[in-house]
Write a structure and sequence with these properties.
The protein is 46% helix and 19% strand. With 170 residues, the chain is of the alpha/beta class. It has one domain: Molybdenum Cofactor Biosythetic Enzyme, Chain A (3-Layer(aba) Sandwich), CATH 3.40.980. The chain has a six-stranded mixed β-sheet with strand order 2-1-3-6-5-4, sandwiched between helices.
Length: 170
């Protein structure tokens, strides 16, 4: 790891405030194991979950909720799960992509690379992605619990404070 990255990480906030959003036409609080895992892992890493919602894969509903998060000084990141596949109802990728002010293509690329080791070429059907909406970090993971665990433990939690620090750098 380079000295600059280490310096940035030292300057990053240790506790973040995050929103967890599950995109699903069928999940409820009781059956949303992927959203629950995001909450559990984020809190286990010392972060505070300040919002949690489940919305159907309807672009207007997703967009309105994300727009309500934009510019909130008390919110550092929105972590989404679901709607990233290629079926006709999976519209999360298009919806979120249209709202991003700065895409982070490396997140999706890294997720698919790590996912390939677990599920093989089927990983190409994942449209995990993310970026910034202003200074809000937005990361979208597939809806499966295994995908959430992979993304959270191997990518998001290790790097989220650094991402937030860079996004809010003045």
């Amino acid at each position: 790891m380079t000295e600059v990255v280490e310096q940035h990480r030292e300057q990053a906030p240790s506790t973040l405030r995050v929103a967890v959003l599950t995109i699903s036409d069928t999940r409820t609080r009781e059956t949303d194991t992927s959203g629950a895992l995001i909450v559990e892992l984020a809190q286990g890493a010392g972060h505070e979950v300040v919002e949690r919602a489940i919305v159907p894969d309807e672009p207007d509903r997703i967009g309105m909720l994300l727009e309500s998060y934009r510019g909130r000084p008390d919110l550092h990141a929105a972590l989404l799960t679901g709607g990233t596949g290629i079926s006709p109802r999976d519209r999360t990728f298009e919806t979120v992509s249209a709202l991003l002010t700065r895409p982070l293509p490396g997140f999706g690329e890294l997720f698919r690379m790590l996912s390939y080791a677990e599920i093989g070429p089927a990983c190409m059907m994942s449209r995990a992605g993310g970026g910034l909406m202003g200074d809000l970090v937005v990361l979208v993971m597939p809806g499966s619990r295994a995908a959430v665990e992979l993304a959270m433990t191997r990518i998001i939690l290790p790097e989220l404070p650094h991402l937030v620090q860079q996004a809010r750098k003045r």
